[in-house]
Amino acid sequence: MSSTLHSRLLERAAKLNDELGGGSITALPIIETQAGDISAYVPTNVISITDGQIFLQSDLFFSGVRPAINAGQSVSRVGGSAQIKAMKKVAGTLRFRFSVIS
After folding, report:
1. Is the peptide bond before 29 cis (omega within 30 degrees of 0)?
2. Where does the ATPase F1/V1/A1 complex alpha/beta subunit nucleotide-binding domain lie (predicted)?
3. Which residue from 19, 24, 44, 55 has the highest number of Cβ atoms inside 10 Å of its Cβ?
């Protein structure tokens, strides 16, 4: 499998217009792992080319935590640099609450 296959597939999620300044790519790739192993080829590739990940865990779901987000593994490389002050405040509070639940 080509090492560029996943990035080319994600690039197809965009329709960029050079006359309007290019644009950005928004895609929500969903990767199912075997026993939560994110070190396999596909998860590692997708993680390396995306700006963040939301990790969902079935054990959290079945214990009643909804959404079943593992706050410890979920990350954003963009984070606060792309947020207004009000959003940073709310995001910080939510991150803390999710980490307490997890």
Report:
1. no
2. 4-76
3. 55
Single residue among 31, 50, 69 that ends a domain in this structure: 50
> Which residues are marked as active site?
77
Q: Are 100 and 67 members of one domain?
A: yes
Mean pLDDT throughout 70-83? 78
What is d(CA 70, CA 93) in angstroms, rounded to the nearest whole number?
16
Q: How is residue 35 annotated by DSSP?
A: T
Count structural domains, the chain: 2
**How many angstroms from the chain centroid is the CA of residue 93?**
19
pLDDT grade for 85, boundaries at 50, 70 and 90: confident
φ and ψ at residue 34, rounded to 5 degrees: -90, 115
Residue 1 sits in the same domain as residue 46? yes
Which residues, in sequence order, are bridge partners of residue 76?
52
pLDDT of residue 102: 53
Query: pTM for the full model?
Result: 0.62
Which range marks the domain in which residue 44 is found?
A: 1-50
Which alpha helices (DSSP H) does 1-102 contain, by range? 5-11, 41-49, 58-62, 85-101
